[in-house]
Amino acid sequence: MKSGFIQNGYFLLFTFITGLFYFCFYMVALSFSLSLSFTVIGIPLVTRVLRTTTTFIQFERTQTKIYTDITTAPYDRKVTTEASVWAQAKLELTDRRNWSAVFWLMQKFVIGLVSLVSAAVLYLVPLAFLLAPLLYRFIEMNVIFMQVDTFAKSLLVMAVGALLAAISFKLTDALAKTIGGYTASMIRQLNR
Length: 192
What we know:
The chain is mainly α. The chain is built from six helices and two strands, in the order H-H-H-H-H-E-E-H. It has helices at residues 5-35, 42-68, 85-94, 96-130, 132-135, 151-190; strands at 141-143, 146-148. A hairpin with a 2-residue loop joins strand 1 (141-143) and strand 2. Helix 1 (5-35) packs antiparallel against helix 4 and helix 1 crosses helix 6 (151-190). The radius of gyration is 23 Å and the shape is elongated. The two termini are 29 Å apart.
């Protein structure tokens, strides 16, 4: 199933939103819980924060499947529930996969910034160029070194906009597949 142009745009914007959320959540939650680690509630709080990685990775997996049709292996993580709170805390804190998952999820912020800028360029620029015959009378338009002040120039800009829209269609599909590949790679690395 091929992803649509609008669906890829949603995925790019959603990648920015989730990346921003993961970055802020882990920065605040880990900073707060680690600063309280000298108290009784600090270590259990850190373990609860680290347990969220499973939920977020499953969400990323589902989001990738819905928007890009890339199927990834499930993220299997075994949680011991019979052990005492402190034994579970030790297991959670020393599990390399927890910290790797936090690192991978926080990297989504950088990917999200790239996808936000890409979405703005790949969607808004062709749209503005396509609307040039309607807009050139109301706003001052300059494309590279040419001022768009006549109807003929606006038609030329509109033709360039049509070409850019065709290129954007292919680039957004490739970018969405690349971001989906990042999620698949993340899960593959964490399942090792």
